[in-house]
Amino acid sequence: MIIEHIKSTTVITQEKLTLAKFVSRLNEVYDEFSNNNLVINLFSLASLKASDLKEFALLSEKHKTNNHSFVLVIDAVPYEDIPDALTVAPTLQEAHDVIEMEEIERDLGI
Q: Are 87 and 71 in contact (CB under 8 A)?
């Protein structure tokens, strides 16, 4: 797990752990990042399926309830298969763009 801090955003990259271990570890350290926007980079998981993304649904909901963005970066899953509760971007740049738009919406009360 690689962790980078960029302004008010934390980017966590899955590298060598299995998805189950990664999600477990992410939940263990969540409090350290709970006040930042989160980008979860899953780009290294080319075999990821839409059903695997459900592992992140509770964490995403919890994070969004606290008025922070939660974006998964992955391009291996067709967009139409992604659960509605999750925000997904195909690249890190687009994930940062989504966060910027969500911050503007929160500032405007939208």
A: yes
